[in-house]
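Predict fold of Pyrroline-5-carboxylate reductase; 261 aa.
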Amino acid sequence: MKISIIGAGNMGGAIAKGLAQSTLINTTDITVTAATQKTLDAIKSFNRDINTSKNNSEAVKNANIIIIAVKPWLIDKIAKEIAPYINNNQIIISIVAGVPFEYLDKLFRCAQDAPAIFRAIPNTAISIKESMTAIASYNASTEQEKLILSIFNELGKSILIEERLMVAATALGSCGTAFALRYIRAAIEGGIEMGLYAHQAKEIVSQTVKGAAELLMHNQSHPEEEIDKVTTPGGITIKGLNEMEHAGFTSAIIRGLKASR
Ligand SMILES: NC(=O)C1=CN([C@@H]2O[C@H](COP(=O)(O)OP(=O)(O)OC[C@H]3O[C@@H](n4cnc5c(N)ncnc54)[C@H](OP(=O)(O)O)[C@@H]3O)[C@@H](O)[C@H]2O)C=CC1
Ligand SMILES: O=C(O)[C@@H]1CCC=N1
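Predicted 3D structure, encoded as tokens:
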């Protein structure tokens, strides 16, 4: 199975790196393209078996799966370039945030029919096979859906959802990486103010956040259930939590997520 990624930047490059570590795809069957040689060299230095090219139309010709990973304002230009070389046996995956199937159909329709198109929104942890990827499908068979889910499951976890939910899933799962990291940064800064060295604070906060997330997944529990186990009545955790809430913690997160939408 050959996969071509058009646009090997933060996300396209991360997907290529993740795929190169997966068992489903041979690294020599991965091709990435970019506008500049510098980006392609960076991919080669990660794994020299990944094919690199600046020729998008050549890259898509023999691919079974084509992943479009350019900035949203470049999708029209890229589609114009590659659409003549795409056929209905190929699968297109657009990771371009905010571009609906209705629009992708117009861009990639071959003759009377559109190929199978997926929208996938991973996050940057895909480079280390720890992504959460939301996927919506259009014109695809159940077999094709299974195939695409199996690829992204190898690169973390994936979920098939209706297209109308992609916006919310993007805010939570993709922008969410930045939101979680901003909490981590804030906690590190607090730790330093209380006397810890930066590297010590980072280690403590990173493992604590990872452990908190693992608790939810391992115990299949609700966050408040786990919080109850930490908050000693009259103790220090509830004092900290309430102070954060007075400053608008929950509200700030909900407002931020809705603004991302
Ligand atoms: N970053 C993220 O966390 C996420 C991003 N997305 C979506 O992914 C898409 C890409 O975002 P991101 O990776 O952050 O952006 P980047 O700018 O990092 O990557 C875009 C890539 O496209 C390449 N490119 C530009 N023009 C061409 C061209 N004509 N032919 C081939 N490649 C080209 C660039 O090449 P060069 O490097 O040489 O300039 C660059 O490598 C966006 O649409 C975004 O909505 C979706 C989910 C998460
Ligand atoms: O910020 C953005 O627009 C992209 C889409 C999701 C994550 N990054």
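Residues 6-12, 33-36, 39, 56, 69-72, 74, 95-97, 121-124, 174 surround NDP (ligand 1) (CB under 6 Å).
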